[in-house]
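Sequence, structure tokens quoted for completeness.
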Amino acid sequence: MSLRPLKQDMSVFNNIGLELEPVGIKYEFFKPEGIDKLDKVLALCEMVKEAQQNSKSFFITRDNEDCAGKCAMGMMEGPEWGDSGEIGEKMEIFQDSRANRHCMTHYKTFKPGTINYAIFSPLSKLTFEPDLIVFVTIPENAEKILRAMSYSTGEMYESKGTPIFQCSWLYTYPVVTQKINYILTDMSFGMRAREVYPPGNVIVSVPWTWIPVIIENLKEMKLVLPAWRLGRDKWLQEEAKILQSVDEKAKTVTPESREFTTFGSE
């Protein structure tokens, strides 16, 4: 099936100093046209890295995924012994199986059978409107992306995750809930065990509804705030000037202008 052509200008992401190229992801029921299938087997958490390293677009099916990612995408329902929580106890991630079972109640995944293909494309090769853009970067740059979310909306930064099954929090939760999510690479059992990314990086997943907001705000806002360039002492002086200016202006507000009447009063 043909994909909706890319119409948004993503070039602003080239201006924020990203070390690794962002990757767009699209989920489809029908087989996508004009894109090759990945010729290897990886975990879902490794797919973005694969697109970054080889700078090419590809799609996967359930047989390309060798971990729990296919369950997050609804391509396969997990076995009963998997749902029992025994795995987490035996891997010493949880004290016992009941903790693992409780952890599994938090996930947001796609309804089984609704997704058969997942397409991955580095930003430079992106030709379709993605469902999700994934950024892997240092905290300094992750802050720019998150602030671009909040800059015009006041939206709160929010990170959702669990010790296991982080693929659901990065690749399905944002699409299902329409919420931007971010996670430290150090805090994912599977990614850390597979050595997908170095410690200290942040992965930010942006669903399609937020992409236009992020793009427009990155164009307008200062990527590095003045307070960070000045240094502590100079900033404290500048901060005092700003506060004094606002305080003096507030004093010009007359008592009459502050008066108000309750609804229904004469």
